[in-house]
Amino acid sequence: MLTDYHVHLRPDGEQTPAGRYFTPANAQRYREAASERGIGELGVSEHIYRFAQALDVWKHPSWRVSARDDLDAYCAFVREQTDLRLGIEADYVGDREDRMASLLDAREWDYVVGSVHFLGDQAVDMRDSEWDIWRSSSPEIVWRRYFETLGEAARTGMFDILAHPDLVKVWGSSAPVPDGDLRRFYELALPGIAESDVAIEVSTAGLHKPVGEIYPARAFLELCLEAGRPVALSSDAHVPEDLGRDYEQAIDWLRELGVTELAVFEGRRRRLEPIG
Ligand SMILES: [Zn+2]
Ligand SMILES: [Zn+2]
After folding, report:
1. How close is the Cα of 5 to the center of ligand 2, in Å?
2. Deepest in the core among 143, 188, 228, 256, taking most CB within 10 A?
3. What's the pLDDT at 119?
4. Ligand 2 centroid vs 197 CA: distance in angstroms?
5. pLDDT in the model for residue 174
6. Whose atoms come closest to the Cα of 125: which ligand?
7. How far is the CA of 237 from the centre of ligand 2 (A)?
8. What ligand has the least distance to the C-alpha of 114?
9. Which parts of the chain have pLDDT scores under 50?
10. Minimum-distance ligand to the CA of 46?
């Protein structure tokens, strides 16, 4: 079994309206690309901040400009007009946990992908925007806060999958990386991860970012595996051509680490299936 769960039906940005992408024909393009690549378990996880209901959780200015679509129409589209699993990529917003939980609990997902993009109102992955955290904080502080927040996100139990778990490295050498052994940061997230039931996403998307590495780093994944966490494999594709991108590399890497099974989700219940 191969999975791709962290998948977007459209590229990010304002020029990609729901009406053009939430169509049976577009879903079919993803299904066909998945079949070609041997991916049997396919789901979609649109960014929550593109839906108007996200503003009930948080009114960040970057969300206000993106929150256009109706979340329930998205759920109905995926359920009624496609054969895809229904997921969502939900941000962990520290002091908005209860509001996000009510928004998520009101809908019947197959799985919820949880992401840490923001630390306070600044983002780790919005370089050269007014929300760019790298402008104002030292790498040591950003990395520390990122992994503390990731552990908190896991501990809430709101998420089935922890997305791109070391996203903070996304910029590679074009954002400063702290010196020395990075395990001192990973260890900040571990208690929350170990006490949770969350699956750890292995994402090939990082290979195509400035960092040029799979998320998460090997040392971080090893710690998560030691803590008994299962692996969820995804590409974070935003176009059908990117589905399952570089999976050969990810699968070889997982085998080296002794991972033989992947998490599979339905109705927010998880089971493990052999990789293949
Ligand atoms: Zn993300
Ligand atoms: Zn994503």
Report:
1. 10
2. 143
3. 97
4. 21
5. 83
6. 1
7. 7
8. 1
9. none
10. 2
CA 42 to chain centre: 14
pLDDT tens digits, 177-204: 899 999 999 999 999 999 999 999 999 9
3-state secondary structure 231-252: EEEECCECCHHHCCCCHHHHHH
pTM: 0.97
d(CA 171, CA 275): 30
Å from CA of 166 to ligand 2 middle? 13
Q: d(Cα 215, Cα 254) in Å, to the nearest integer?
A: 12
CA 120 / ligand 2 centre spacing (Å): 19
What's the residue count for the chain? 276
Q: What is the pLDDT of residue 173?
A: 85
Q: How crowded is residue 274: how many other Cβ atoms within 10 Å of its Cβ?
A: 8
Bridge-based pairing of strands 3-4 and 41-47 is parallel
Distance of CA 269 from the midpoint of ligand 2 (Å): 21
CA of 89 from ligand 1 middle (Å) equals 7
Ligand 2 center from residue 248 Cα (angstroms): 20
d(CA 120, CA 239): 30
Write the pLDDT tens digit of every residue in 233-256: 999 999 999 999 999 999 999 999
User: What's the one-letter identity of residue 189?
Assistant: A
**What is the pLDDT at residue 128?**
84
Nearest to 235 by CA among 72, 69, 8: 8
Tokens 């919005």, located at residue = 126
Distance 12 CA to ligand 2 centre (A): 9
Burial of 136 (0-12, 13-18, 19+ CB in 10 A): exposed
